[in-house]
Amino acid sequence: MKKEALAYLKPFREKIIHAFEELEGEESFARTPWTYRSGEGGGEMAVLRGKVFEKAAVNFSEVSGEVFPGSDGKGPFYATGVSLITHMANPHAPTVHMNLRYIETPEKSWLAGGYDLTPMGFFYDEDTAHFLKTAEEALAPFGLYEDFHQQAKEYFYLPHRKKERGIGGVFFDHYNTGQPDEDLKVWKAVGESFLPAIIPLYQRRIDQDFSEEERAMQLRLRGHYAEFNLHYDRGTKFGFLSGGNPEAILCSLPPVATW
Amino acid sequence: MKKEALAYLKPFREKIIHAFEELEGEESFARTPWTYRSGEGGGEMAVLRGKVFEKAAVNFSEVSGEVFPGSDGKGPFYATGVSLITHMANPHAPTVHMNLRYIETPEKSWLAGGYDLTPMGFFYDEDTAHFLKTAEEALAPFGLYEDFHQQAKEYFYLPHRKKERGIGGVFFDHYNTGQPDEDLKVWKAVGESFLPAIIPLYQRRIDQDFSEEERAMQLRLRGHYAEFNLHYDRGTKFGFLSGGNPEAILCSLPPVATW
Question: What is the CATH number of domain A2-252?
């Protein structure tokens, strides 16, 4: 499965980088490779700081080690994935997060991933509907949308603020039905539906007018986003525990946030 | 002990608020009371957003409940404390954090607290020396400085960045030697030495010139500070788990941070 996962992830990531650069216009992603500890793998950050994308990161990583970090397993592990976040200049354009991961331990292997949308104060019904409908249609052939949507609802939640992080999306973890080919199809269906889910929203929103108050609201909501990523996010925990590159792990944090 | 702890905390807090307002000049602290869940206690936030203190919070809380949050105990608990943070407008002036707490569970009760200094890129030897020497002199009568200083070194540490949060200070937790009167003296000695440790630094630094690059460095280092407070800080964890007021718990976060 490792081979198939890697073969999908790399061109998938390039397609997203290309689509974002097209939307941005002039600026392009800055790529920074990094190696993991003593050289057991590594990754590449790609960060865009532009006029449309105030900050976007589309990262690839592939690491292995002797001791699985956290409580999901023990002993040697292998993990690879693409992880993505956007923080848009325009408050009308929501933040989006997406990731696809494949993980192996001696006892088991699994696929994981998903994407979710976080409006920065503007909840447009047509945007929410389009985003979720795209995910729903992608997962319809597998009958998995309700399940994955519910998992997103539970995962992307800030208990201390008693609110969901945004409008949700789809999320799955430890996914392994025993049918690797079918599982990969599900994983890829999530990946393939990501750009169709988000690009139309950005095309609609990135040129809308906004006020200073609306910018201030966006920065406060980015603070809530940072709270989630630093306090609850499993990727951050895994990254810190595994001794990963802090700059790569924290690429997801907003360019500016206020409290 | 509860009575003695409370009797110390309230005027202690007012003294700090007064000292900070004097340094600030015109602006004063905005006070916001809050109640805990169904009314088992509560607290008061006091937040100053001024020209010298870009943001300072000096909070008091007193809460009790049926189930102790976290792993330090179980069953009913009582917790009271003063917690303080500053984020200075001038990057030459370091961030300081201080807290004093008293906690009771059915099995045990303890005192906790400390203070630590986080320079925003400018490490002035004379400032570090004054800050630590003041703590050292306060704890000399008890022979506890080395111990508490070492605990601060270990606690105020960002493993993912492999660096200390700042230059440290003093920190102690679960402090109960079985001699309540002596323990209270130690606790109060930490409290009494706080203003003498920090005020002279602020008097020296708040009017120094700084550049845009230095401001940018301050905002990046504030990002690291937010990482500590959201990912590692015991107070944040306790606060979230106990269902405390998120605004009060997160008062410590910087007014603006960048990543």
Answer: 3.40.1500.10
